[in-house]
Design goal:
Layout: H1 10-15, E1 20-22, E2 48-53, E3 56-61, H2 72-75, E4 87-88, E5 93-94, E6 105-112, E7 122-129, E8 135-143, E9 155-162, E10 168-174, E11 177-184, E12 195-199, E13 220-226, E14 228-229, E15 236-244, E16 248-250, E17 253-258, E18 261-265, E19 268-270, E20 282-289, E21 296-302, E22 305-313, E23 322-326
Parallel strand pairs: 8-10, 14-22, 18-21
Antiparallel strand pairs: 1-2, 2-3, 4-8, 5-6, 5-12, 6-9, 7-8, 10-11, 12-17, 13-15, 13-23, 15-20, 16-19, 17-18, 21-22
């Protein structure tokens, strides 16, 4: 299998300041106001142009264009990674804060979790429309070629380019398994500020498949999380389903961030195995993972119920000890 890492495009680099021409007509070419440039008899700077190359000012011959390669040493990113041998691995997180209908969209994705260690691996991702309506097929894998272990991180972050899709709720089938649900908004919708991440469905250990779509017709009893976190760090929540059955499987969990609220929306699915479960409650934990949180104080909601706990995001945080909140009557 051969895959390509999705990277920042040249167009994106251009929008950040690369390939920006400043010619002789610029009223303040670099160094002119400080008397550092020679001038002609007419008092004008010499016949040269300047390129702003990704934060570096580069002098080029007059009449040349920055897009002809003068900025390459400063702006050109490495060629796409190609792996001949990869490890297939389903995505653990997708973060589709806003996906408009009818156009390709890039969304953040991640592989990993608390307690895992990655140091230079890269995610390869290929998304295609499925044969069934409202199904998105994503094939993902890990490429470790060229990885340098300078630090250990719990997630490998990447972007996945999605094809144009219709308005509605889509099933995301990652490496052949129904793991996520994705909402696609009508074209022309103006998004409100907000962040969202969806943690994958739990493992189907019985191997019979699960019902779909996921259901939220249960009452989680509590949620635990670190009381503090560093800025732009993902926070992991453990939500307890107090009355699951032996055929219950953890469904995908959506985490929405808006204003000063982190809202957890866990779900469950049931096995399609013919199992005879006793009529007793079996507590089951669900994993929910937030987008990277900006600095501030965040209130935690489980669906529409405020838990009374807070996450203090600061550098450094006052504490990272775990705190739990219970749902009244749970």
């Amino acid at each position: 299998m051969r895959g390509t890492l999705l990277s920042i495009s040249l167009a994106a680099l251009a929008s950040t300041g690369c390939f920006d021409n400043h010619g002789r007509g610029d009223p303040t070419p670099p160094g002119a106001d400080a008397g550092l440039l020679p001038t002609s008899d007419a008092g004008l700077p010499p016949a040269v142009d300047y390129c702003e190359c990704c934060g570096v000012t580069v002098e080029i011959p007059a009449g040349e264009d920055c897009e002809l390669g003068w900025c390459d040493p400063y702006c050109l990113f490495p060629p796409p990674v190609v792996c001949d041998e990869v490890e297939l691995r389903a995505l653990d997180l997708i973060c589709p804060s806003f996906v408009p209908a009818g156009q390709p969209t890039r969304i953040p994705v991640a592989i990993g979790g608390d307690g895992e260690c990655y140091c230079g691996e890269q995610v390869l991702c290929d998304a295609q429309l499925g044969a069934e309506p409202f199904v998105l097929e994503i094939e993902s894998s890990i490429c470790a070629e060229g990885a340098l272990c300078e630090a250990c991180f719990p997630y490998i972050e990447a972007e996945c380019e999605l094809p144009p899709m219709e308005t509605g709720t889509w099933t995301v089938r990652a490496n052949g398994e129904d793991l996520f649900q994705l909402s696609v908004a009508p074209a022309g919708t103006m998004p409100e500020w907000g962040l969202e991440c969806v943690h994958r469905r739990g493992e189907d250990r019985l191997g019979c498949g699960t019902d779909w779509p996921p259901r939220r017709v249960f009452e989680p009893t509590s949620a635990c999380h670190p009381e503090g976190a560093y800025p732009e760090e993902r926070v992991t929540f453990t939500v307890t389903d107090g009355c699951a059955g032996c055929g219950t499987i953890e469904g995908p969990c959506e985490v929405e961030v808006f204003d000063d609220v982190v809202r957890l929306r866990p779900s469950r699915v049931e096995t399609q195995c013919d199992v005879d479960c006793p009529t007793v409650c079996m507590p089951m934990d669900h994993t929910c993972v937030s987008p990277p949180l900006p600095e501030g104080t965040w209130r935690v909601f489980l669906e529409d119920v405020e838990l009374g706990t807070r996450i203090e995001v600061a550098s450094p945080p006052g504490t990272t000890d775990e705190v739990c909140g219970e749902v009244l009557g749970g």
